[in-house]
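Q: I have 65 residues here and want to know how they pack in 3D. Can you give me a structure?
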Amino acid sequence: MKQAMSKLTEAEVSWLMNALAAADCACCIWRDKAEERYQCFPNGESPCKAFADKIFSELERSGLI
């Protein structure tokens, strides 16, 4: 029998948000360290935010949030 998945708690969603987007661009995994012209844009046009949006869209589509 297939077990139903429960929705993520607010704390789990908050943890996931913090894990997907770096608080400091200096430690960002998406940033090319050799490229000094790299910037993140506050309107969401950055690799980590685009990735997080995809993750959260899929979680929402799956009914987990």
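Q: Anything worth noting?
A: Residues 25-65 form one domain. The chain is about 40% helix and 0% strand.
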